[in-house]
Specification:
The chain is of the alpha/beta class. It folds into three domains: 67 residues; 115 residues, Aspartate Aminotransferase, domain 1 (Alpha-Beta Complex), CATH 3.90.1150.180; 247 residues, Aspartate Aminotransferase, domain 2 (3-Layer(aba) Sandwich), CATH 3.40.640. Helix content is 41%, strand content 17%. Strands 5-13-12-11-10-6-9 form a seven-stranded mixed sheet, sandwiched between helices. Strands 1-18-19-17-14 form a five-stranded mixed sheet. α5 packs antiparallel against α14, α15 packs across α16 and α18 packs across α19. The two termini are 38 Å apart. It binds pyridoxal-5'-phosphate.
Length: 468
């Protein structure tokens, strides 16, 4: 019998065959050549080890293998997923989804030229730091503002500008790690300042700050919002107004790393009270730093609000150039901030706020509808109580009352969750008590149909996908 390896076609022969015509029309030739070589090599190896000859059916079977590989290789690395976890600001899933109008503004800024650093009226160079400032002043009462890459960058800029080579007091109860290796003490040191710890983990008094300042060498007081944890029990903190007074008596600035960036009253979201940036400014903070993509519900950005004099010196710091914000971000942030001019509108149109305010009744209604549609595919599910989370290192321990759809599967929850992940788009769900939970709080309007298709695929519903 002749060696079957001798029947393996050449790359050239395959590419010239009609079976490859559509592939060559859809993918770059060089890529097709490379992938075809790999597939041919695989066929050769499998024949060597005595396996079935997948090439036996001619160019058509090669084309099929090449196409599957091409589709895998050209899938973007960063792609959309359906968040069915009920965690609204899921850091691993990209935090805040944007309002439609903000996404449009970003697409438009990305596609064309803009007046990013151009003063249209005067016909000369302008500043990128002018954008968003009017809105931020109007919405927070700040004298001035500057937007940088994220809140971590904001903190670096603030500390480097106000305290390079000098001491900064921080309460031992606020030396937090935000996540992703971001620790206040390390950022402070990298920004060129010296950390002067005051107080104890659970109690820090005004006199602790006073004593540290009296020892000399302190050029700023830093207050850090406990975004992602709580200290309860025998606790004490110096209030912001008392720290503001102490700072002003000593002629040093009070810096407030607020993080969360809530712009509407928390009771509108039925959430516990959380300080607004405007509260912090009113209480006397000289510079306040917040995130753009946490409770504000905008793009990733760091917003610094404060006095004209200090914001001016931030702009003069050469580091500002290294931490600068991108035009696409500015466009999205401005569109998001515009919505806050009418808080009702913000609650309606900013997905983050909308999801946080979603009620158990509303979620029940949507879950029931989804259950009915899945039942038509022969998939049984039940509605169970389930708590959502705010996420993004905000509102630690706060549970958002709601419901979720629990999917029953004979294959086990782990397998089902994996099948939900390994499709296009991936569906990320939670597992609880051997059930896969689909929490519709974080599933965006318009994703319903795709979600049903993907759940169908994961259950191996006939014709619905690779597991069928
Ligand atoms: C989230 C947070 C940060 C980091 O903000 P990013 O925008 O993620 O860089 C810093 N400080 C506090 C208090 C935070 O909550």
């Amino acid at each position: 019998m002749s060696d079957p390896r001798r029947r393996i076609p050449s790359v050239d022969a395959l590419l010239a065959s009609p079976a490859f015509e559509a592939i060559l029309a859809g993918f770059p030739r060089q890529l097709v050549v490379r992938v075809t070589r790999v597939v041919i090599e695989e066929v050769r190896n499998s024949l060597l080890s005595g396996d079935k000859d997948i090439g036996a059916n001619g160019p058509g079977s090669y084309a099929q293998a090449v196409l599957i590989r091409l589709e895998q290789e050209t899938l973007p690395s960063l792609r959309g997923v359906i968040n069915a976890t009920g965690v609204v600001l899921h850091t691993n899933l990209g935090r805040a989804p944007l309002a439609e109008i903000a996404a449009e503004a970003m697409a438009s800024a990305a596609r064309g030229y803009s007046n990013l650093e151009y003063d249209v009226e005067a016909g000369r160079r302008g500043s990128r730091y002018d954008h968003c400032v009017t809105l931020l002043r109007e919405l927070t009462g700040a004298e001035d503002a500057i937007v940088v890459n994220n809140n971590a960058a904001a903190l670096v800029l603030v500390l480097n500008t106000t305290a390079r080579g000098q001491g900064v007091t921080v309460s031992r109860g606020e030396l937090v790690e935000i996540g992703g290796g971001f620790r206040i003490q390390e950022i402070l040191e990298r920004a060129g300042a010296f950390l002067v710890e005051v107080g104890s983990t659970n109690r820090t008094r005004l006199s602790d700050y006073e004593n540290a300042i009296n020892e000399g060498g302190i050029s700023a007081i830093l207050k850090v919002h406990r975004s992602n944890f709580r200290i309860t029990g025998f606790t004490e903190d110096a209030t912001l107004p008392s720290l503001a007074e102490l700072a002003s008596q000593n002629g040093i600035p009070l810096l407030h790393d607020l993080g969360s960036g809530l712009f509407v009253a928390s009771d509108a979201l039925s959430l516990p009270s959380e300080p607004l940036a405007s509260d912090s400014l009113c209480a006397g903070a000289d510079l306040v730093a917040i995130s753009g993509d946490k409770l504000l519900g905008g793009p990733q950005a760091g917003i610094i609000l404060g006095t004209s004099e200090l914001i001016h010196s931030l702009r003069q710091n050469p580091l500002c150039r290294a931490l600068r914000v991108d035009k696409v971000t500015l466009a999205g942030l401005e569109a998001t901030l515009q919505l806050y001019r009418d808080p009702e509108q913000a609650l309606q149109l900013i997905p983050t706020l909308h999801m946080l305010a979603d009620t158990p009744e509303e979620l029940h209604k949507r879950s029931k509808q989804l259950a009915a549609e899945l039942a038509q595919l022969g998939i049984t599910s039940s509605i169970v109580e389930s708590e959502g989370r705010v996420g993004g290192g905000t509102y630690p321990g706060v549970k958002l009352p709601g419901v979720a759809l629990a999917l029953d599967t004979p294959h086990g929850a782990e397998i089902l969750a994996m099948r939900l992940r390994l499709g296009d788009p991936p569906v990320i769900a939670r597992i609880l008590d051997k059930h896969v939970l689909i929490d519709l709080r974080t599933v965006l309007p318009g994703q319903g149909e795709v979600l049903i298709r993907r759940v169908g695929e994961a259950f191996g519903v006939e014709g619905a996908g690779p597991w069928g």
